[in-house]
Design goal:
The protein is of the alpha/beta class and about 220 residues long. The chain is built from six helices and nine strands. It starts with 9 loop residues before the first strand and ends in an 8-residue tail after the last strand. The chain binds 5-O-phosphono-beta-D-ribofuranosylamine.
């Protein structure tokens, strides 16, 4: 019987602006055979981003697109979409991508643009999420993987992971504790998407917020 096991791997395009440690976690999960996906291209708006070096080291096409060379966010996103399409991408991952994306990208990949954010959304969206959490005085923090919508860190939540906030934490300590969980959560979520288990439910009539339903995994054949 054919099924998810025989399905082609998920074709990922990963957008980064900096270190790319989440990209590395995805590349590692793929190379260990834990994530049935292929990273087809890595795109950065920062030519010197370490994430591009990580892509090259993994023999993944690395594309630098300088957003300052484009007249508008939409024009930049058109170039991004073109590069993603040229590599056959079906799912886009924003992994430390420090640009606001427009409907040009979102409409090209409906419910297939995923972001990872270092807070338990809807708390502390935007920049310096860890600093926001410390200043607020929360006792737990964490990370969220969500589908991207037109807002900033507002899209339907797929999964979250929690870490404690310790009395002596500074931003760097909390950042590192959260990041370790990000590196587990992001590949796990992409694995669920690869198995087509992640769906956005919209109840337009009820004017309800779209929410994600995750269907159960396949049991191993007995
Ligand atoms: C991560 O904390 C991620 O949640 C946020 O940006 C950071 C990117 O880190 N969106 P890296 O580039 O993956 O190391």
């Amino acid at each position: 019987m054919s099924g998810a096991v025989d399905a082609p791997p998920l074709v990922l395009g990963v957008l980064v602006s900096g270190s790319g440690s989440n990209l590395q976690a995805v590349l590692d999960a793929v190379s260990r055979g834990e994530l049935r996906a292929k990273v087809a291209v890595v795109i950065s708006n920062v030519a010197s981003a370490k994430g591009l070096d990580r892509a090259r080291a993994a023999r993944v096409p690395a594309v630098a697109l300088d957003h300052k060379a484009y007249g508008s966010r939409e024009a930049f996103d058109e170039a991004v979409v073109e590069a993603l399409r040229a590599h056959g991408v079906t799912c886009v991952v924003l992994a430390g991508f420090m640009r606001i994306v427009t409907p040009v990208l979102l409409d090209a990949f409906p419910d297939r643009v995923v972001n990872i954010h270092p807070s338990l959304l809807p708390a502390f969206p935007g920049v310096d999420a860890q600093g926001q959490a410390l200043r607020y005085g929360v006792r737990v923090a964490g990370c969220t993987v969500h589908f991207v919508d037109a807002g900033t860190d507002t899209g339907p939540i797929i999964a979250q992971a929690v870490v404690p906030v310790n009395e002596e934490d500074d931003v760097e300590a909390l950042r590192a504790r959260i990041l370790a969980r990000e590196h587990e959560l992001l590949p796990a979520v992409l694995g669920w998407i690869a198995e087509d288990r992640v769906h956005v439910e919209r109840d337009v009539a009820a004017n309800a917020r779209p929410r994600v339903r995750i269907s159960p995994g396949r049991r191993p054949a007995s």
